[in-house]
Write a structure and sequence with these properties.
The chain is an alpha/beta fold. The chain has helices spanning 17-28, 45-62, 76-88, 103-113, 229-234, 244-261, 264-284, 310-322, 347-364, and strands at 6-7, 68-73, 97-100, 119-123, 147-150, 152-153, 158-159, 172-175, 192-196, 207-212, 290-291, 302-306, 325-326, 337-340. The protein has two domains: 17-261, Type I PLP-dependent aspartate aminotransferase-like (Major domain) (Aspartate Aminotransferase, domain 2, 3-Layer(aba) Sandwich), CATH 3.40.640.10; 263-364, Aspartate Aminotransferase, domain 1 (Alpha-Beta Complex). It contains nine helices and 14 strands. A hairpin with a 4-residue loop joins strand 6 (152-153) and strand 7. Pyridoxal 5'-phosphate binds at residues 104, 154, 175, 198, 240-241.
Length: 365
């Protein structure tokens, strides 16, 4: 079989080769049931075991205590932009606070305003979303329903340092769609963490939500059941037909992280080494390229940059494709180039990208 191209796309992102091989086999027949995974019932014992396996691996990888529920939702992170304020902008609390630091957090901020009164705690638009605030220094009322932020701005390539427990006065809610499981985090610093699968953990169709159980009591009655997070916790992510295939692949990825990679500290070391190599290569190219992010906030997951000359951006995409590298087009909102270094992008693939960058620059700049 022809081998998989080296996928540097911002999403759907690269998946580990061993997971792809298991998935290929599972589409024909699962080893344990003899049936295609695509035909497996969501009410089967097999699927209950898959859900338990995925949840157990997530608890193990992130050290998530039983004070938190883990649930698998549909509708992507965009649906959560709407349902989080529906569930948690509780009556009686002060309005939720939103950090607007890039394309995705701006969407979350806009969607929240359709549901509730909300405050903007910080806005990076004036500086072109190249910087991030220190969350600890924001002026947030402790009575705010929550503070929402996006831990890694996928489009611009900006990443917050992880939060420590008790650093923020209000309950903390984070969209971690593009850096979830890339490094260890203090989950107990958050009241809710969410991340859809298609950047770093599997195919599109499923979104992981980790919610403090005590916080579920704040949810007002009267929401449509499908939009009420308690429904999905109560029904163990099996209220209506869940995306069995996406959850199965996500479970395989969590197994890969636990047993092949050896956990999130090991994953973090690999991710640090990949991003260091790419940024060092880009920095050494001097004026030939511009990196979007201010150096203090450079993301380990998404490296957004441009040659400045649009024709060179296009020419580089072609030169990289000739070496089997794909997915370098920048997001349609900012253009340029973006190399996404998700967990399944190997160090060898990054080395190849760096050498293609060096050769290309020698020839064209
Ligand atoms: C890609 C992305 C989204 C959009 O997610 P959908 O699942 O397509 O709705 C939201 N937040 C972040 C941080 C993203 O990177």
């Amino acid at each position: 079989m022809k081998s998989n191209a080296l996928n540097f796309s911002g999403g759907p992102g690269a998946l580990p080769e061993t997971v792809l091989a298991q998935t290929r086999d599972a589409i024909v027949a699962l080893p344990d049931t003899g049936m295609s995974v695509l035909g497996m019932s969501h009410r089967s014992e097999w699927f209950s075991a898959v859900l338990e396996d995925a949840e157990m691996n997530l608890r193990h990888l992130l050290g998530i205590s039983n004070d938190y529920a883990i649930t698998f939702l549909q509708g992507g992170s965009s649906l959560l932009f709407a349902t989080i304020p529906m569930n948690f902008a509780a009556r009686g609390a002060a309005p939720p606070e939103y950090v607007t630091s890039g394309y995705w957090s701006a969407k979350a901020t806009i969607e929240a305003a359709k549901v509730t009164k909300r405050n903007i705690a910080w806005d990076g638009k004036a500086t072109g979303y190249t910087q991030l605030p220190d969350l600890r220094t924001l002026d947030i009322a402790p009575s705010a329903a929550y503070l929402h932020y996006v831990s890694n701005e996928t489009v611009e390539g900006l990443q917050f340092p992880a939060c420590g427990t008790g650093e923020i006065a209000a309950p903390l809610v984070a969209d971690m769609s593009s850096d979830f499981l890339s490094k260890p985090i203090r989950t107990d610093a958050y009241s809710m963490i969410y991340a859809h699968a298609q950047k770093n953990l599997g195919p599109a169709g499923v979104t992981v939500a980790i919610i403090e159980r005590a916080w579920l009591d704040r949810i007002p009655d009267g929401l449509p059941a499908i939009l009420d997070f308690r429904t999905h916790v109560l029904h163990s992510s099996n209220y209506n037909t869940p995306p069995v295939f996406a959850i199965y692949v996500l479970m395989l990825v969590t197994r890969w992280l636990r047993f092949d990679v050896g956990g999130l500290q090991a994953m973090q070391r690999i991710n640090e080494s990949k991003s260091k190599r790419l940024y060092a290569t880009l920095d050494a190219l001097g004026d030939a390229v511009t990196i979007h992010a201010d150096p203090r906030w450079r993301s380990q997951m998404n490296v957004s940059f441009t040659f400045g000359d649009k024709r060179l951006d296009q020419a580089f995409i072609s030169a990289a494709r000739d070496e089997g590298i794909v997915g370098l087009e920048g997001h349609r909102s900012v253009g340029g180039l973006r190399a996404s270094l998700y967990n399944a992008v190997t160090e060898d693939a990054v080395d190849l990208l760096c050498s293609v960058l060096n050769e290309f620059t020698v020839q064209h700049v």
